């Protein structure tokens, strides 16, 4: 896939920047989380950055992204400012949800994030609702429901695809398939192949979820088809979860095999951009330096921000 990629250098660099921003945030969380400065459960997206970034590259601010419990990659890729997410993780009133949401409940309507849901599968229907709203208001817009393989076990997955297909709604069903539902492998929790089932309702697409270019190209096709027809589509992206389901410990399930070099979406993109002479090592270094500065500023902003006042708890 990578060799023949039809992608412009600026698009490639943009994917790189967005993925690295997410990665640096994860690394910061790994550094400080054990000090209890972030009193929120965190579901890290280490190793999974390419899925959100490859899809969101084709979305506009007014398009909607409906997220579940694993929010960081999607939220940042869609445009939630880093400092706003970081302040939320630090429990400060300047956070994107005013400190009341934490990692699983992010909110940024300006960038098409109307909340996220920790009810596994629940957010699939919320994305369909956003697509219905676009249709009823004759607004251009695409909604993306991003969910995991675990969510495919839930009835709402089927109900949402059924209604979206029946009503003809502009929604992308984005399956970020890390092949785990908490500690349970997909083979133990999901009988059918979700893409084969989705094919009864809508066109389906596939991408290697550890490869940003693969996701970018498949998402481009899927989203342009949705914009053209106003109808739903399904995109399946197998990927790998590097960490335990929740928290800052590395995955240690005996049946999971991660090669942090081969499976790293950022390293893959780096090699591609350099190999195709779409970027120089200096340019990639510059991107990293700029992101490190941005992160430092965001950490400072978050730590300087006030906790919400006690009065805010009064109804
Ligand atoms: C309705 C519901 N059932 C169970 C849970 C507990 N739970 C939280 S995350 C999770 C696993 C979800 O797996 P998946 O949808 O594949 O997402 P991933 O964590 O892999 O990104 C479960 C079972 C929940 N939050 N909501
Ligand atoms: Mg999963």
Largest sheet: 5 strands, parallel
Task: State the helical fraction.
Answer: 40-55%
Small-molecule binders: thiamine diphosphate, magnesium ion
Low-confidence stretches: none
CATH class membership: Alpha Beta
List the domain count as a whole number.
Answer: 1
- Any idea what the CATH architecture is? 3-Layer(aba) Sandwich
The CATH topology corresponds to: Rossmann fold
Mean pLDDT: 96
Structural class: alpha/beta
SS summary, helix count = 11
How far is the first residue's CA from the last residue's CA?
55 Å
| N-to-C series of helices and strands | HHEHHHEHEEEHHEHEHH
Q: Based on DSSP secondary structure assignment, what is the total number of beta strands?
A: 7
Indicate the radius of gyration in whole angstroms: 19 Å
Per CATH, the superfamily is Thiamin diphosphate (ThDP)-binding fold, Pyr/PP domains
Could you please describe the fold and organization of this structure?
The chain is an alpha/beta fold. It has one domain: Thiamin diphosphate (ThDP)-binding fold, Pyr/PP domains (Rossmann fold, 3-Layer(aba) Sandwich), CATH 3.40.50. Helices cover 43% and strands 9% of the residues. The chain has eleven helices and seven strands. The strands form two sheets. It has a five-stranded parallel sheet. The protein has a two-stranded antiparallel ribbon with strand order 4-5. A hairpin with a 2-residue loop joins strand 4 and strand 5. Helix 1 runs antiparallel to helix 10 and helix 5 runs parallel beside helix 6. The longest helix has 24 residues. The protein binds thiamine diphosphate and magnesium ion.
């Amino acid at each position: 896939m990578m060799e023949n990629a039809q992608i412009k250098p600026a698009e490639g660099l943009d994917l790189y920047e967005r993925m690295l921003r997410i990665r640096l945030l994860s690394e910061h969380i790994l550094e400080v989380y054990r000090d209890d400065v972030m009193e929120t459960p965190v579901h890290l997206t280490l190793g999974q950055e390419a899925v959100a970034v490859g899809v969101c590259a084709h979305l506009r601010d007014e398009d909607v992204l409906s997220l579940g419990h694993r929010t960081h990659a999607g939220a940042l890729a869609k445009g939630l400012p880093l400092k706003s997410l970081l302040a939320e993780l630090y429990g400060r009133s300047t956070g994107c949800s005013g400190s009341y949401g934490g990692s699983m409940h992010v909110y940024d309507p300006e960038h098409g994030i109307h909340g996220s849901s920790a009810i596994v599968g629940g957010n699939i229907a919320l994305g369909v609702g956003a697509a219905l709203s676009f249709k009823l208001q004759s607004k251009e817009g695409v909604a993306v429901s991003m969910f995991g393989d675990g969510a495919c076990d839930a009835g709402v997955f089927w109900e949402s695809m059924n209604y979206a297909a029946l009503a003809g709604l502009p929604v992308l069903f984005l399956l970020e398939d890390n092949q785990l539902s908490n500690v349970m492998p997909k083979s133990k929790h999901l009988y059918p192949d979700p893409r084969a089932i989705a094919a009864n309702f809508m066109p389906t697409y596939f991408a290697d979820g550890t490869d940003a270019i693969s996701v970018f190209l498949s998402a481009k096709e899927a989203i342009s088809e949705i914009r053209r027809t106003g109808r739903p589509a399904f995109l399946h992206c197998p990927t790998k979860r590097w960490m335990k389901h929740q928290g800052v410990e590395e995955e240690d399930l005996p049946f999971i095999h991660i090669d942090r070099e081969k499976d790293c979406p950022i390293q893959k993109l780096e090699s591609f951009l350099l190999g195709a002479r779409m970027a120089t090592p200096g340019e990639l270094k510059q991107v990293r330096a700029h992101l490190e500065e941005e992160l430092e500023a965001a950490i400072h902003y978050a730590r300087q921000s006030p906790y919400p006042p006690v009065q805010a708890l009064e109804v």
